[in-house]
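Hi V.,

You were right to ask for the full record rather than a summary. Here it is.
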Amino acid sequence: METTGTVRRRTAERIRDTLERLVTERDVWVSTAHPDHGPHQVPLWFSWDGRAVWMCTSAASATARNVRKEPRVRLALPDTFDVVLLQGEAECFPDQEVPEDAAEAFTDKFGWDPRVEEGSFLYVRVVPGTVRAWRGEPELRGRVVMRDGTWPA
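Predicted structure:
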């Protein structure tokens, strides 16, 4: 792990950087678990609405089956040095019942509208309850930047 030159950021900087990445990143790793089949992890496209992560997957996918049975999920942005981990509960919306603003934001970001595809899709909304963010070993202490759904003041 590269730590040379890494300067420990204050919490406010970590939050600012995390929010920026949630707006600009394309992919998130989604970790779910099924009570009978165990853990499952998959990358999905996502959009951030300022409060929640929105993803979309086939309604028949393992991810969709898992979050219907066990809504607790963990999300990770795809960088092992500039780590952002989110934890929350998934809320599911069939493609024809998703709020219009969420579906439009997803379509605008990716140029793809699952609502017009053949087959059924499921939009998954996760409001984070906990967010951890750190860059390298110097930032391991204090890595929890959101607790109980609240960013520190």
